[in-house]
Design goal:
The chain is mainly alpha-helical and about 450 residues long. It has 14 helices and twelve strands. A hairpin with a 5-residue loop joins strand 5 and strand 6. The longest helix has 19 residues. The N and C termini lie far apart (about 50 Å).
């Protein structure tokens, strides 16, 4: 009898997710993650401990965008649990330590900030201000770029640019009104210097990290660069550029400098796209049978290609590369489970460099191949949801990915303009430079 009851519960759970009849991958994966993990503070493989982590911030922010697009109030209730659990009435953050000067721990501030903008709580503003102050005082290289962490002194990682700068540029007008341009200038300076210091002319790619002292065991003694281009690190960098552009005002004088870096990055990304599958390998600059097609960096690149084409940063050929990438992700990595949930497979769990106490992380290809691969890593789930939302703007669903729904219009110089838009049923409804026009007249995507 007990076994029969358990089977009944399983069948009801499967009916619950299937009964929703999700025909958008964004909604489906968000619903699946919520079914797998009851509380948002336990996401990303933290089943027993409420954790403050950039991984939660990324995945929850993608859920926020899914809510803003489709309006499922149960998604909003789920994501609101995170700040309610992790930020006390006084504004202190569980699991966050200012003195660590860890850029990773600031990334979730962007999710908190976006929640605060819509549903303000004083304790959230206090927490946002604390993280912003960390960035104002973050140790820097002699050239003025943030160290990735206090324990990674004098090191600039592509990861860190994503962890800090999107929040920095978005929060500056709120927290330092009237002074925002100096923060924008600082952000652009850091982007330009990081691009220059990590770029490898031979491969036209960017190395995972650069050590200003050239003394770390993983660093080249002449250049200070790590050995390889890790796909996700370059994915972080590309997403940082897109998100910083989201925050910079349209009339900001140095905006085009960021666009130029983004164009350079995406040109190389497309050059390294696997022709057969449409996705990317874990380590981009190594041709070795042990290398594998990897879901997190592929989702990041697809998202950046699709969004950059929509916003006119790059031309329509990049949209086609993004479409190919997204279709490849669904074919290579997306799996429907027996209970009706969706999984994103073949996610690299983690890769890093050092510190001295961890010599295994030496930046070699062997090291990158030694790290485990798993399903539903938040570092892939969030970008895949964002890429899915980009596809859904164009009218794509789970049933029509093979169709061509793109409609390209041009402005001076042949740059694609995001003029053709669709409602959530995939019907053409008009044109706008920003957002999808919903049938009821509201604009939910930004």
């Amino acid at each position: 009898m007990k076994r029969l009851f358990a089977l009944l519960l399983l069948s009801l759970a499967a009916w619950h997710i299937q009964g929703r009849e999700y025909n958008h991958y964004s909604e489906w994966l968000v619903a699946s993650e919520r079914q797998r993990v009851a509380h948002p503070y336990n996401l990303d493989f933290s089943p027993t401990k409420a954790r403050w982590s950039y991984t939660m911030g990324i995945e929850l922010e993608s859920m926020l965008d899914t809510y803003l697009t489709y309006g499922d109030e149960s998604v909003l209730a789920y994501i609101r649990e995170y700040p309610e659990k992790m930020i006390s009435a006084s504004g202190s953050i569980t699991g966050y330590k200012y003195s660590d000067f860890n850029l990773d721990n600031v990334r979730t501030g962007r999710f908190i900030l976006r929640m605060y903008q819509r549903w303000p709580r004083q304790q959230d503003l206090t927490a946002i201000d604390e993280m912003f102050r960390q960035l104002e005082n973050q140790p820097r290289t002699k050239e003025g770029v943030w160290w990735h962490k206090d324990i990674y002194a004098w090191q600039v990682w592509l990861d860190g640019i994503y962890m800090g700068l999107p929040f920095y540029t978005m929060a500056a007008p709120l927290l330092r009104p009237g002074q925002e341009q100096q923060y924008y200038d600082d952000a652009v300076d850091q982007i330009v210097k990081t691009e220059q210091r990590t770029y490898d002319e031979a491969t036209r790619l960017w190395k995972h990290a650069w050590d200003e002292t050239h003394s770390m065991f993983w660093a080249d003694k002449t250049t200070g660069l790590s050995q390889h281009t890790w796909g996700r690190a370059l994915g972080w960098f590309a997403m940082a550029l897109v998100e910083v552009l989201d925050a910079l005002p349209a009339d900001y004088a140095r905006r085009q400098e960021v666009v130029a870096v983004l164009q350079k990055v995406l040109a190389s990304v497309v050059d390294y796209q696997d022709a057969a599958s449409g996705v990317w390998y874990d380590v981009l600059d190594v041709d070795d049978p042990r290398n594998y097609l990897e879901a997190t960096c592929s989702s990041m690149f697809a998202y950046c290609l699709l969004k950059s084409a929509r916003l006119g940063y790059v031309d329509a050929t990049y949209q086609q590369a993004g479409l190919k990438a997204y279709r490849g992700i669904v074919e290579q990595f997306v799996r429907e489970n027996n209970d009706g949930t969706l999984s994103l497979t073949k996610c690299c769990s983690v890769s890093g460099l050092g510190p001295n106490s961890n010599p295994k992380r030496d930046g070699s290809f062997d090291y990158y191949m030694s790290e485990p691969v798993r399903d539903n890593d938040a570092k892939g789930v969030g970008p895949f949801v964002w890429a899915s939302l980009e596809m859904e703007r164009m009218g794509y669903t789970t049933d029509n990915l093979d169709e061509d729904l793109t409609a390209v219009e041009t402005v001076k110089g042949g740059t694609r303009h995001p003029a053709t838009v669709y409602n959530l049923k995939g019907q053409r409804v008009g044109a706008t430079a920003h957002g999808v026009v919903i049938a009821d007249g509201q604009q939910r995507l930004q």
